[in-house]
Amino acid sequence: MSNDRWNAVDTYFNEQLAPADEALSAAVAASDAAGLPQIAVAANQGKLLHLLALAQGARKILEIGTLGGYSTIWLARALPADGQLISLEYDPAHADVARANVARAGLDKTVEVRVGAALDTLAQLEAEDAGPFDFFFIDADKVNNPNYVEWAVELSRPGSLIVVDNVVRDGTVADATSEDPSVLATRRMIELVGEHPRLSATAVQTVGLRGYDGFLLARVQD
User: Fold this and answer.
1) DSSP state letters, 79-141
2) pLDDT tens for residues 148-159?
């Protein structure tokens, strides 16, 4: 089946089930105008994150990898009025775009974007006793995914959900001979999750507007 067919199906699903609104459209436009890479989640994927966070009854969300704040808006909209979302972004320019997009969506009181290397910021969150978080979305540099998952468990509670994006790597995740650092780290992360005594997980392949990829979903056990 061709990419054109996948894209057409995604477009149909988005139009029917996850239509863009002013804030989301503006976030995409502002991110494009600022020259950010066009790697944000698709609308139907953003809606999936939103529904997962709603079903989880999340009050505190931690996002690792903000980019332009598109997924941040979807997630923050799942929070109650007194909820909190902290999003970690390495690039200050990306963070500036994300903050403006979040403010335009009326979520600046709910969302805090922190700038810096995520491993440093995660340690700061632990020192601040900022957790536990109910929901984690990991979508940053792939070579650190094993570390990010370990931090998510550290900052979690029993029942917390962890979503890790981009785990299929265009199918190369199944290649045990790959020397690609992102593939190697993704495989280490999946093996870590599979062996972790506190995690129960699955992974799902996807096709569509963001190509051939997929995500991992894990639940922190008691």
Assistant:
1) S-TT-EEEEEES-HHHHHHHHHHHHHTT-TTTEEEEES-HHHHHHHHHHTT----SEEEE-S-
2) 999 999 999 999
Sign of CA pseudo-dihedral 43, 130, 103, 91:
negative
What is the rounded CA–CA span in Å between residue 131 and residue 62?
A: 9
pTM beyond 0.90, yes or no = yes
Domain containing 169: what range? 3-220
Angstrom distance (rounded) from CA 17 to CA 48: 10
Give the CATH number, domain containing residue 123: 3.40.50.150
Phi then psi for residue 20, to 5 deg, are -70, 145
Residue-wise pLDDT for 118-147, tens only, equals: 999 999 999 999 999 999 999 999 999 999
How many domains does the chain divide into? 1
**Which of 82, 32, 74 lies closest to 49 in space, CA to CA?**
74
Contact between residue 191 and residue 167 where contact means Cβ atoms under 8 Å apart: no
Instruction: Name residues whose C-beta falls within 8 Å of residue 72's C-beta, 6 or more positions apart in sequence.
Output: 63, 66, 85, 87, 98, 101, 102, 107, 111, 113
